[in-house]
Amino acid sequence: MIAGKRVCVVMPAYNAAKTLGVTAAEIDRTLADDIILVDDASRDETVPVAQELGLHLIVHPRNRGYGGNQKTCYTEALARGADIVVMLHPDYQYSPRLLPALAGMVASGHYDCALGSRILGVGALAGGMPLWKYVANRFLTLVENLLLGYKLSEYHTGYRAFSRKLLETLPLEENSDDFVFDNQMLVQTIWFGFDIGEISCPARYFTDASSIGFRRSVKYGLGVLATSVEFRLAKLGISRPRRLARDGRRLAPVAAGSGRPGGPPGAR
User: Fold this and answer.
1) Range of the structural domain that residue 179 is part of
2) Which of 146, 209, 225, 228 has the fewest CB atoms inside 10 Å of its own CB, making it the most exposed?
3) What pLDDT, on a 0 to 100 scale, did the predictor assign at position 177?
4) Distances (CA, A) of 153 to 8, 85, 104, 248
5) Cβ count near 165 (within 10 Å)
6) In a domain, 247, yes or no
């Protein structure tokens, strides 16, 4: 716990067997009350590695996509009583040692969302981020800051912490099951008036770290731009998409230990 709040670390996993062990080893177990790994129908040994590490494990019978994986992560974390949820990729790209800092920002009450930014400082390029990805990150972030009327160093980090209130408020089920889910979630966070804080976070780019290729990056970038335009049009009163509606579909409550709403327990 931190400041009397229950902290849950969630890890959306797909083919993470080679890096899961070193990632889990750096998680501060005195801080994390719960560690959940959701396996998205991996084709490697992610599931037995997670079992060996004693993680709370849920296995999707079929691949749901990165966004769909996160929906399961957050639903399960809330069902298990989390007050603060930190999403950490199990590919060791982000430093688990910054978990206390991210969780602390939310526990302070100043922020309902905290981001580990690769752009603050020299973390991105120094860690091996390809130059084309860095340039795309900077361009998309500039456009988003202008369209959203907010100011972040980047919108594309996968290292995030959230308050329970935020996860229960946002209509996350209206979002994509693909990679653009991350961006849609931040746009919702801004739309519903939650405060976002950032800390500098080093990032590692290496062979076994997950990374989407150029084609999927283009698809993601177009989705980011569409989401930002959607937000601006809603601000102007021209449209009101379901993902920005207060009665949009939220994460469905589930019984503790259930792998999905209304379904049987996931694999353990």
Assistant:
1) 7-134+153-210
2) 146
3) 97
4) 26, 22, 20, 28
5) 12
6) no
